[in-house]
């Protein structure tokens, strides 16, 4: 029997979340067949079985966070006895994080694996199972209402309330005896052996007839109709990253605006010359920022919290905040200071396309030294972005809008865009941030200057 352990698939990865199993116990798999998807703090990655055989056990639940080295699944190969235990065998490392028979990994954290033998195993996250244990509910007896039949916290709380009501007198608050329930308590007074879910109470019309079912009682005073959405996958990674950034880096912001008329004209000329390869404004902005960072090296830096040192990066690797259906990702274009605007445009199109289809590799989502978020692409007029920690600054670019401005004491209409630089005030002072912004704006307002700076 082979045990597949979670390998280190990213920079400094310590744990990953099980997003989705692609197989079930008993399924036959071929070598390199995808078995599951895991979410790291960088990306969702498919893991494959390095050996052919029959899937034995899945040792983690969807939604569970497991540490590197934890056994995720077993594979029975020819000659293996189904159900044989690996306990007591010798460790024999093989490639791709797979080991032969071995004891559990030190520090392995997981909820109990799928139930063996008789009984039904209901899909539920570890936190839901903990809640069920705390409330005295057998989670495996519940019919889940979550995606794919997963048992949710609300399912558990509803079951606990019904069990409690039954234990108080075998009747509901509406005076009707609870029918058999689809859940069972696990002990004590709550363990009343109910067999079927209680139907929602019926509203009674003035004429005495039943009308539409009344809303189910909300758990813990939650208003009816509200929905709780588990923080999972990319959303969870974003949440953790944002908290870390705002907690560690004292944010400050500088805001300025750029006259985009000349850049609009240049882009039009470029696109007219090559209509098949039309460019957006973003590659020009990326190049302008990359050139400006040469003059302001403290903005192209990382903060080493542990060593209390500022690391000035020699190369400019630009992170591009990209909205996807699952949340924000930040693919990285490397060495933008040494690439042409056309090269940046091509690479940007490829990375953002693959980000939206979840086909980026983990290394394409790491290593940025500065980040741009192009909020203007969705029409935002002004916002203040959060730094992509451990970087020390991020630039928000907003929509280009025709506005009245004063030029040579006359009011004229120009197409303008706000730029907002959020920066770590431990590393950068306000005057430096303001001068950097003016430097970038200078290139945007006179983009021909970028030609002089090209490497």
TrEMBL record:
It comes from the Bacteria. GO terms for cellular component: cytoplasm. Residues 1-76 form the Lipoyl-binding domain. Residues 123-160 form the Peripheral subunit-binding (PSBD) domain. It holds the Pfam family Biotin_lipoyl. Belongs to the 2-oxoacid dehydrogenase family. This is Dihydrolipoamide acetyltransferase component of pyruvate dehydrogenase complex. It comes from Caldinitratiruptor microaerophilus.
């Amino acid at each position: 029997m082979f045990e597949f352990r979670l390998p280190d698939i990213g920079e400094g990865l310590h744990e990953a979340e099980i997003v989705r199993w692609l197989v079930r116990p008993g399924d036959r798999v071929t070598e390199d067949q995808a078995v599951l998807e895991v979410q790291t703090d960088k990306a969702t990655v498919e893991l494959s079985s390095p050996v052919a055989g029959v899937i034995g056990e899945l040792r983690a639940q969807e939604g569970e966070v497991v540490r590197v080295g934890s056994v995720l699944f077993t594979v029975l190969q020819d000659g293996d006895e189904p159900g044989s235990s690996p306990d007591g065998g010798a460790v024999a490392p093989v490639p791709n994080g797979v080991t032969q028979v071995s004891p559990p990994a030190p520090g392995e954290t997981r909820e109990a694996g799928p139930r063996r033998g008789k009984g039904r195993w209901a899909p539920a996250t570890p936190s839901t199972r903990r809640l069920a244990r705390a409330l005295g509910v057998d989670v495996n007896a519940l019919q889940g209402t979550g995606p794919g039949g997963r048992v949710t916290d609300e399912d558990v709380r509803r079951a606990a309330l019904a069990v409690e009501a039954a234990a108080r007198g075998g009747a509901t608050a509406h005076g009707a005896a609870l029918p058999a329930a689809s859940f069972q308590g696990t002990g004590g007074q709550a363990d009343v052996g109910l067999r079927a879910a209680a139907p929602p109470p019926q509203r009674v019309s003035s004429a005495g007839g039943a009308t539409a079912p009344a809303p189910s009682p909300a758990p813990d005073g939650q208003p009816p109709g509200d929905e709780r959405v588990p923080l999972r996958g990319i959303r969870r990674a974003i949440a953790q990253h944002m908290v870390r950034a705002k907690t560690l880096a004292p944010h400050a912001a500088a805001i300025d605006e750029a006259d985009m008329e000349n850049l609009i004209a240049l882009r039009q000329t470029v696109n007219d010359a090559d209509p098949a390869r039309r460019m957006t404004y973003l590659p020009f902005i990326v190049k302008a920022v990359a050139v400006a960072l040469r003059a302001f090296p403290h903005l192209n830096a990382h903060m080493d919290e542990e060593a209390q040192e500022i690391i000035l990066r020699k190369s400019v690797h630009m992170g591009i905040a990209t909205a996807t259906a699952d949340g924000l990702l930040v693919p990285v274009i490397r060495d933008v200071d040494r690439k042409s605007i056309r090269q940046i445009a091509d690479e940007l199109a490829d990375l953002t396309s693959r980000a939206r289809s979840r086909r980026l590799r983990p290394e394409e989502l790491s290593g940025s030294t500065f980040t741009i978020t192009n909020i203007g692409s969705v029409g935002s007029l002004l916002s203040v972005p959060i730094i992509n920690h451990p970087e020390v600054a991020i630039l928000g670019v907003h929509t280009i809008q025709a506005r009245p401005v004063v030029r040579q004491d006359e009011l004229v209409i120009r197409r303008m865009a706000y730029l907002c630089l959020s920066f770590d005030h431990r590393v950068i002072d306000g005057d430096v941030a303001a001068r950097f912004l003016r430097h970038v704006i200078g290139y945007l307002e006179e983009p021909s200057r970028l030609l002089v700076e090209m490497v």
